[in-house]
Amino acid sequence: MANKRLVQYIRSQLSKGVSLEAIKLTLSAKGWRDYDINEAAKLAMASKKTKIKKTYLMVLVLIAGIVSVYFLLFSGPASDSEPQITDCGTDFDCFIAASADCDESKALHEVSLEIFGMIATSVTYMELQGMESGRCVYYQRTESSSVEFSEELVQQMLDSGITQEEIEQQEEAANDSAQATVGTETTCRFMPSDLTDMLNRWKQGNFGSDDLTGTECEGGFSQTVL
Fold first, then answer.
1. Are residues 121 and 179 in contact, defined by beta-carbon separation less than 8 angstroms?
2. Is 116 helix (H, G, I), strand (E, B) or coil?
């Protein structure tokens, strides 16, 4: 059984950035047996890897939550009856221009965000459905969403002791969270100028939790922010 005092000493030195080999040499010079040193080192390293794994898992859970909220806020839609609706396709500038007067129009918008090494990509269907009670009706639905771990993140996780299999499982779990938002629909009512300003911010890649301030929304993000 490993000496508890020895385990604690090795943990303490590792936390200070001292290499394991240097710690072993120091202990050996002080008369500790190689067997006792190696047994204590195994326990100290095992607890270190466990802490790193738990930290990564907490970060991944946080990221998955952020990604889920993002997809709920910025997903997209379609309507059954389409009178004379302008089809902007993937031309986001066309859709922004239409928002100035709330001209009926639709577009597909793809966004990719990198958060702590996780690359989240979504395609949103957006539609302007005209004016209603002095406000522009904006509708959106998530068409697709996915998450991919960057090579840098994968390497960091491998270096911390997480196995390739565990990494793949965590990436799959992140993708499951993203996929759960597909089909989410949201309808909001904006003052036209506020909608145009928000869309211009999105074009620049600036998204925020206050984007819906002053709007009335229902659906995926069903809070009314007044």
1. no
2. coil
Question: What letters, b where the CB count within 10 A reaches 16 and e where it falls short, cover 118-140?
Answer: bebebbbbbbbbeeeeebbbbbb
The H-or-E segment that residue 214 falls in is none
Contacts for 26 with CB less than 8 Å, ≥ 6 apart? none
**Phi and psi angles of residue 143, each rounded to the nearest 5 degrees, phi first:** -90, -40
CA-CA distance, 199 to 76, in Å (whole number)? 13
- Torsion angle, alpha carbons of 87, 193, 113, 86, to 10: 0
Burial 20-41 (b: 16+ CB within 10 A, else e): eeebbeebeeeebeeeebebbb
Residues 6+ apart with CB under 8 A from 225: 212, 213, 214, 215, 217
Contacts of 105 (CB under 8 A, 6+ apart): 85, 86, 87, 88, 94, 95, 98, 127, 128
pLDDT band at 197 (very low <50, low <70, confident <90, very high): very high
* pLDDT tens-place string over residues 128-174: 999 999 999 999 999 999 999 999 988 988 888 889 998 899 889 98
Residue 184 phi/psi, 5-degree rounding, is -65, 130
> Are the C-beta atoms of 106 and 78 separated by less than 8 Å?
yes
List the chain domain ranges. Answer: 4-49, 53-219
**Chain-centroid distance, C-alpha 195:** 24
